[in-house]
Amino acid sequence: SNFRVAQSFVAGANATLEAVNLDLSLNPPSAGLSVALHADAAGVPANSALATLSGSPGQARFEAQTSPALATGTTYWIVASATAPLVEWDATSSGSETGEAGWSLGDSHRENGFGFGWSLTSDSMQMSLEIAAVPEPAALTGAAGSALLGWAAWQRQRQRRRRQRAVGVTVAKS
Questions:
Q1: Distance from CA of residue 51 to its chain's centroid?
Q2: Which of 111, 116, 127, 163 shows the greatest Cβ crowding within 10 Å of its Cβ?
Q3: How far apart are CA 171 and CA 99, in angstroms?
């Protein structure tokens, strides 16, 4: 069993998760680390991950392997899991947030020490999310020929947005 730290967030729009930026370290540094997106299960992370993210400890970007879909108003969890006895993830007691309207981080985080259940803590873990907006269904309607051309243009635009647009949902450091 691993030591796990989790921070919740609420999606402010339909989007796909592209990456999460975290500032975390392990003690000892050689310990194994995984980061994943989880659904909410009554105020704690669900047991199964929706998607895994790849990256390394430090001030790092963890990229989603599958660009999972996020639904407006839904709570999700970013879970860092390590074989180390200590995962140090920058935290804040400030409620000050910056970023896109509607997106928010939970006011506290959860820890699970080697399978003993999730415990509530009083501060939020620092992170920012990189997302890609999902177009409204009405934007995808039209005649078959124009829909195909529109789809190709949408794919190019979507790829550009993924590369260029980082929507920050950050809890500011105190």
A1: 10
A2: 127
A3: 9
Q: What is the C-alpha radius of gyration for the chain, rounded to an integer number of angstroms?
A: 17
Residue 95 amino acid letter: G
Pairing of strands 3-10, 104-113: antiparallel
CA-wise closest residue to 51 among 79, 31, 74: 79
Helix, strand, or coil (residue 13): coil
Residue with tokens 């639904």: 71
- Positions of the chain with pLDDT under 50: 139-141, 143-146, 148, 154, 157-166, 170-174
Q: Give the H/E segment covering residue 158.
A: helix 144-164
For residue 68, whether the previous peptide bond is cis, meaning omega lies within 30 degrees of 0, is: no
Report the sign of the C-alpha dihedral through residues 109, 113, 119, 121, in that order: negative
Nearest alpha carbon to residue 65 among 19, 32, 21, 104: 19
Residue 170's CB: how many other CB atoms inside 10 A? Answer: 17
